[in-house]
Amino acid sequence: MIVRFMIVLAAAVLPTAAMAGNDKGITLQECIETGLQNNFSIRIMRNLEQQAINNATRGNAGQLPTVGLNATYAGSYQNSGYTYPDGSRTTANALNNNVQTGVDMSWTLFDGFNIRANYNRLKELQIMGELDMRLTLEDFVASAASEYYHLIRQQVRLSNLRKTVALSRERVRIVEESYRLGASSGLDYQQARVDYNADTSQYLAQVELVKKSIITLNKLLALPDVERKTVPADTAIYPNKYLDRDMLERNTMRANTMLLKAVSSRNVSGLELKRIQSRNYPYLRLNAGYGYRQYWYTDGHYDRSNQWGPSVGASMGFTLFDGGNRKREQANARLHVENSRLQQEQLENSLHADLAGLWLAYENNLNLWDIEKSNLQVARSNFEVAMERYRLSELSGIALREAQLSLLTSEERLSTVEYSIKICEISLLLLSGDILTSEL
User: Fold this and answer.
1) 138 and 257 in contact (C-beta within 8 Å)?
2) Which domain holds residue 307?
3) Per-residue buried b or exposed e for 85-108, using 16+ beta carbons within 10 Å of the residue's own CB
4) How far apart are CA 51 and CA 236, in angstroms?
5) H/E element, 404
6) Secondary structure (3-state) at 140
7) Helix or strand or coil: residue 283?
8) From residue 316, how far is each of 60, 113, 283 by CA, in Å?
9) For the chain, give me the number of helices (H) and strands (E)?
10) Residue 145 pLDDT > 90, yes or no?
11) Residue 41 to residues 35, 114, 224, 310, 440: CA-CA distances in angstroms?
12) Is residue 61 a contact partner of residue 119, using CB atoms and an 8 Å limit?
C-alpha cells in the first residue's frame, strides 16, 4: 500500500517538483518523486512484481478445469486380406475417412493437496514480489538521500574552499603592498603566492567533485541529461538527533524488508514440502466431452456411420514405487525448510548486530558534532584575531597560514560529522523499515 501510494503521489506532483527544481533548487522529496517515475531499477522491478501478481491465480495452480475445442480429419488406404474357415480368401482395397470434432474438459479433483499447496505457494511468491519492490524502493530512497546529502557536503566544502581562496588572495594583496613598501621580504610574498596557488588548485579539484556528485545524482534519478546542473534546495545538513533506539529495534524485528522476505521464503519452503508430500496420496481426475464423429468406408457392411453426444470418465491412480525419488525429494525439502529457518535466525542476529553498530556510530557522531561546533567557533575567532594582527604586521605569514588551515580543517570536520550522522540516520531508518514513511 505504501509503495503504490508513493508512486501515485509522485505522478501527481512531478510537474510541480520539476518547476521547483529549476527555479529554487531541487529538494530531497522532489528527487525521490522524480526517481520513483524514472529510475530504471524501479521500473524493472515494477514489471517483475506485476508478473508475480499475474502468476498467482487458481488457474495457474491447477484448481480450475481445462476446456479445449478440437477437430481432426484422418484418412487411410488399406489393402486387407481375409481367410475364412472353409479356406477361401478375399482381398479388398479400402479407403476409409473420418472426421471428429468436439469439446473436451479435464479437471483434477484431488491430487494429494498439491493444488492447494501450489496455489498458496504462488500467493507467497506474490508477497515476495511485493517485498522485492519495496526493497528496491527503500534502496533507491536511501541511495538518493545519501547522494543528495553528499552533494550538499561537497558544496559546503566548495564554499569553504572558496572562502579560503579569497582569504589567501587577501593575504597576497597585503604582503604584496608590504613588500613594495619594503616592510616585508620577498620570501613572505613568494610563500603567500604558493599558498594561494595551492588553495586555488584544491578549489578546482573540489569543483570537479561537485560536478561528479551531480552526475551521480542525475544518473540515479534517470534524468535524460546527466550533466544537468542539479542544485539542492538545502544548503546545509541538519541531522536528526532524536531517534529512539527501542522503537528502531522493535520496527526492525517487525518490518525489516529483508527479514519479511526471509519469513516469506521460509513459508515457500514449507509449501514446497507439502507439494512434494502430496505424491504420497492418490490422484483423481474427471474427464468429460461432447463431440461428433463421422466415418466413410469404401468396403464393408455399410458406407457411413456417425456418432455424437456426451462422454464422461474418471481416472484414479497411485504411484507405488518411483525408484526412491519421492523419499529423496521429501528429505531434501525438509533440509531446505530447516535451512530457511536457520537463515531467518541468522538474519535476525545480523540485524541486531547491524543496529547496534549503527547506533554506536550515531551516538558517537552526535557527541563529536557538539565538540566540532564548539571547535569551529574557536577556530573562527582565532583566525579573525590572527588576520587582524597580520594586517598590523604583528603576525607572520606562517602563523596566519596555520590559523587559516585550522579554520578550514575545523569546517571540514564539522561537515564530515554532520554527513556521517545523516548517513547513520538513513541506515537506521532503512534497517527498521521506516525509510519510506519517515522524513529525511
Assistant:
1) yes
2) 65-110+284-317
3) eeeeeeeeeeeeebeeebeeeebb
4) 42
5) helix 397-432
6) helix
7) strand
8) 22, 15, 5
9) 10, 4
10) yes
11) 10, 35, 15, 53, 22
12) yes
Do 291 and 311 touch, CB atoms closer than 8 A?
Answer: yes
| Residue 151 included in any domain | no
CATH number at residue 293: 2.20.200
Whether residue 103 is contained in a domain is answered as yes
pLDDT at 173 over 60: yes
DSSP alpha helix (H) spans, 237-324: 245-255, 257-277
Residue 307 is assigned to a structural domain of this protein: yes
**pLDDT, average across residues 84-101:** 66
Q: In the prediction, which pLDDT does 395 show?
A: 87
Give me the residues paired with residue 308 across strands. 292
Return the closest-CA partner of residue 231 out of 64, 26, 389.
26
Cell representation of residue 162: 572558496
CB atoms near residue 77 (< 10 Å): 10
Q: Report yes or no: 406 and 379 within 8 Å, Cβ to Cβ.
A: yes
- What are the cell numbers at 261? 522476505
Tell me whether residue 145 is in a domain: no
Distance, in Å, from the CA atom of 306 to the CA atom of 296, rounded to the nearest integer, reads 9
Count Cα atoms within 13 angstroms, Cβ side, for 223. 21
Coil vs helix vs strand at 310: strand
Residue 64 has pLDDT above 70, yes or no: yes
Task: Give, to the nearest 10 degrees, the angle between helix 257-277 and helix 245-255.
Answer: 30
Residues 298 and 363: their CA atoms lie apart, in Å, by 98
Q: How many domains does the chain have?
A: 1
Residues recorded for the chain: 440
pLDDT, tens digit, 9 for 90 and up, residues 251-298? 999 999 999 999 999 999 999 999 888 888 888 888 888 777 776 666
Q: What is the rounded distance in angstroms from the CA atom of residue 135 to the CA atom of residue 143?
A: 12
pLDDT at 345: 96
Q: Which of 271, 337, 267, 325 is nearest to 114 (CA)?
A: 271
| Cell numbers standing for residue 79 | 489393402
What are the cell numbers at 278? 502430496
The secondary structure of residue 415, as a DSSP letter, is: H
Q: Is 398 helix (H, G, I), strand (E, B) or coil?
A: helix
Provide the whole-model pTM. Answer: 0.84
Helix 325-391 / helix 397-432 crossing angle, nearest 10 deg = 150
Q: What is the grid cell recorded at 276?
A: 512434494
